[in-house]
Amino acid sequence: MPARSTHVVHNKKGGWDIKKSGVKTPVAHCKTKLAAVDKARKISRKAKTELVIHNMDGKIAKKDSHGRDSRKSKG
């Protein structure tokens, strides 16, 4: 089963989109990256997915795991 994730990505027309892996249509759109990250974090926590925050160039800036962590080590 592929890993599920929630992504914050820059929209070329302006603002930031929140997308779920495997879905083309954005879940939400925000004017600022900060607002998009805040909203995506809430969505990710509720769905227990990994949050992936992208920069304007599309590169990954940060990842946060909100459940279903496959790592078996403590800490």
Mean pLDDT: 89
Strand order of the biggest β-sheet: 3-2-1-4-5
Instruction: Give the domain tally.
Output: 1
Helix-strand string: EEEHEE
Largest sheet: 5 strands, mixed
- Relative strand content: 25-35%
| CA-atom Rg in angstroms | 12 Å
**Secondary structure: helix percent:** 10-25%
Distance between the termini: 25 Å
Describe it for me?
There is one protein chain. The chain has one helix at residues 33-47, and strands spanning 5-10, 16-20, 28-30, 50-54, 60-65. With 75 residues, it is α+β, with helices and mostly antiparallel strands.
Secondary-structure topology with pairs:
Elements: E1 5-10, E2 16-20, E3 28-30, H1 33-47, E4 50-54, E5 60-65
Parallel strand pairs: 1-4
Antiparallel strand pairs: 1-2, 2-3, 4-5
Summarize the entry for a quick read.
The chain is of the alpha+beta class and 75 residues long. Helices cover 20% and strands 33% of the residues.
Protein traits:
single chain, 75 residues, alpha+beta, 1 helix, globular
